[in-house]
């Protein structure tokens, strides 16, 4: 089985376009099509559906894809083990991350990362929905929730500190809560899934559900709605630190911390060998966010 054919198939699965995948690998559409035909002949099954508009995987292609990716990763790891390409990873790294975190903190870091590894490409999927790492064919996922899947490994990148905040206009109009029990008198702008706020108190953990005025599935949209005066919100400092620093948002209830402080994790499948490109990407993020992350340092300045 030809390794170049496997590389091409993996790129077609990602781009859904034979011409685009071939161009990435420096081969013409005609040669790319011939390579896929040869791979299908070797396997004795059809791997892709071809139409005039797009390419999609057959059921057999979907089954074959993770095995092809495993073979490609094994070769990359084997080469790195003997010093071939250990410091110059090639190919495409597929990463999924929360939309807001990706836009605010991953995209600005990519110029530095890719300048170190110019032969590497990155394919991001930014979504506030948790995408399946294995089924989606991702090399690594950035998560800000606890790892519950035993088929995944995780490395901690940074603390994910969260606070309750409001805009100066909202506080001027409705007042600032002096205790968590006053939250029932206030409107809230919530991120979907975070409608209940839990606080540490001398009496233990107390859960509060403020009046849900707005609910959204994007952290930046929640933050912006809070800045616009629509209500209090629970926000991550990595999302809101510029606005907490310049006063467009004000932290409230500072003396009653939230009970749950999450963390940011780099997650990858445990049933795959850790390719150099994955290791180098995770190490880069750990170095960038180590200790007190720059977004929390900004609030201490």
Instruction: Detail the poorly predicted runs.
Output: none
Task: Please identify the structural class as seen in this structure.
Answer: alpha/beta
How are the strands ordered across the major sheet? 4-3-5-14-6
Basic shape: elongated
Helix content: 25-40%
Major beta-sheet overview: 5 strands, mixed
Give a count of the beta strands, DSSP E runs of length 2 or more: 14
Mean pLDDT: 88
N-to-C terminal Cα separation, in Å? 58 Å
What fraction strand? 15-25%
Tell me the series of helices and strands, N- to C-terminal.
HHHEEHEHHEEEEHEEEEHEHEEHH
How many helical elements?
A: 11
Roughly how many Å is the radius of gyration?
23 Å
Model description:
- The structure is a single chain.
- With 301 residues, this protein is an alpha/beta fold.
- 40% of the residues lie in helices and 25% in strands.
- It has 11 helices and 14 strands.
- The strands form 5 sheets. The chain has a 5-stranded mixed β-sheet, with helices on one face.
- A hairpin with a 4-residue loop joins strand 1 and strand 2 (55-57).
- Helix 1 crosses helix 3 (29-43) and helix 9 (237-246) packs parallel to helix 11.
- The protein is elongated and about 70 Å long.
- The mean pLDDT is 88.
In short:
By secondary structure, the protein is α/β, with parallel strands linked by helices. The protein has eleven helices and 14 strands. Helix 1 (3-15) crosses helix 2 and helix 1 (3-15) packs across helix 4 (59-81).
């Amino acid at each position: 089985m030809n390794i170049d054919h496997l590389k091409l198939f993996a790129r077609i699965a990602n781009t859904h376009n034979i011409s685009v995948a071939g161009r990435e690998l420096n081969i013409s559409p005609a040669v790319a099509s011939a390579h896929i035909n040869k791979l299908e002949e070797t396997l004795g099954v059809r791997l892709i559906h071809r139409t005039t508009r797009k390419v999609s995987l057959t059921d057999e292609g979907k089954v074959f894809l993770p095995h092809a990716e495993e073979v490609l990763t094994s070769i990359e790891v084997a080469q790195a083990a003997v010093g071939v390409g250990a410091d110059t990873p090639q190919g495409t790294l597929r990463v999924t991350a929360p939309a807001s975190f990706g836009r605010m903190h991953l995209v600005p870091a990519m110029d530095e990362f890719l300048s170190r590894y110019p032969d590497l490409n990155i394919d991001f999927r930014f979504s506030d929905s948790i995408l399946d790492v294995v089924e989606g064919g991702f090399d690594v996922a950035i998560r800000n929730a606890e790892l519950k899947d035993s088929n995944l490994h995780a490395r901690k990148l940074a603390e994910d500190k969260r606070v309750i905040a409001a805009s100066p206009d909202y506080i001027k109009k409705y007042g600032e809560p002096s205790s968590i029990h006053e939250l029932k008198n206030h409107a809230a702008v919530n991120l979907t899934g975070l409608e209940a706020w839990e606080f540490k108190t001398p009496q233990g953990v107390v859960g509060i559900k403020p009046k849900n005025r707005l609910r959204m599935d994007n952290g930046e949209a929640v933050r912006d709605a809070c800045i616009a005066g629509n209500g209090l919100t629970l926000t991550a400092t990595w999302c809101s630190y510029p606005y907490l620093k310049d006063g467009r948002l004000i932290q409230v209830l500072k003396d009653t911390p939230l009970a749950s402080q999450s963390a940011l994790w780099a997650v990858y499948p445990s049933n795959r060998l850790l390719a150099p490109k994955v290791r180098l990407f995770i190490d880069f993020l750990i170095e960038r966010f180590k200790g007190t992350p720059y977004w929390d340092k900004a609030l201490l300045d």
